[in-house]
Amino acid sequence: MQFDDVLRARRSVRAFKPDPVPYEVVAELLTTAARAPSGTNVQPWKVHVVGGEARRRLEAEVLAHRETEPDTGPEFERNGKRKEPYISRMRKLGKDMYTLLGIPKGDQAANWAQWSRNYKFFDAPVGLIFTMDKDLGRMSYLDLGLFIQTFMLAAKVKGLDTCAQGAWNAYWPATRRVLNVPDDDYIVCGVALGYADETAPVNQLVSEREPLENFATFHGFE
After folding, report:
1. What pLDDT, on a 0 to 100 scale, did the predictor assign at position 74?
2. CA distances for 112 relative to 78, 106, 118, 119, angstroms
3. pTM for this prediction
């Protein structure tokens, strides 16, 4: 695939087939992703990869934590103070997705049922939890993001699909316990990895992107 083709083909997949992804493939993708840019070569990324029984246990314990224990909230501020135009973009995506799923506005039970699928990695056979040393600064979050994007693009080249999941920063005590994540690491996010179920309506979703003139300012060009 040409690079432009990979960029356009990558999307957030929220329904996967059960087809397995071998260890060797995941290891190759992570090795490739490790070539991502990193300021002063800090390479802040750490990854916990789950499949099989380990994935099922993580799913079960995180969902049980949500039902039986108070919501601890995220470990760190994730979203800041959102304002326009960011709120409208977020709401547009949510409306488009829930329309495809047939979930009406205000149906809290159906909303939670769909949101909880994050903690099943949307049925993907492989899940990845990304963590980072708490002492590192904001620039290291950029490095981690570059690593994750490189991983997702490398996966697409191999015919695999992904979904980046900020939801894993919630209910983090269960994730920390199951995966033995050190207390001095933040649980930043997750990624689901597998093969898209093309029959699932939710996978028809294509998020919109702003035109160039809405986000780029050129200086010194005629």
Report:
1. 83
2. 20, 11, 10, 11
3. 0.95
Please name the amino acid found at residue 58.
L
The answer to whether 78 and 166 have CB atoms below 8 angstroms apart is yes
The CATH number of the structural domain formed by 3-76+119-206 is 3.40.109.10
Each residue of 126-141: pLDDT tens digit?
A: 999 999 999 999 999 9
Task: Report the DSSP beta bridge partners of residue 186.
Answer: 132
Residue 133 has phi, psi (to 5 degrees) of -55, 130
Q: What does the pLDDT average to over 119-125?
A: 98
